[in-house]
Amino acid sequence: MKINSSTPQTSLGPLPLAPRQDSATSQASRGQTGSAHVALSATSRRLLELQDGSADIDVERVAALRDAIAAGKLTVDPERIADALIASARELLK
What we know:
Elements: H1 23-29, H2 42-51, H3 59-71, H4 78-93
């Protein structure tokens, strides 16, 4: 079937949701009590650390660059920048 702007669109509306029982409620209803122990892998813990955003920006490096710019002491090495760009492009092409 071809879909285009002349094809009529229908809306199903909101779908009914089943009542949700969490594990504590379902255990209590069966007369069971207890707790669950969950162990995260090292990779999972690292991913959780990355989600908080604290590893996104090196605040000390930003402050050092800001100070160097303000003092007029920031030196730019165009050859180093070009080499890094080329290396990055080569890595992407692999």
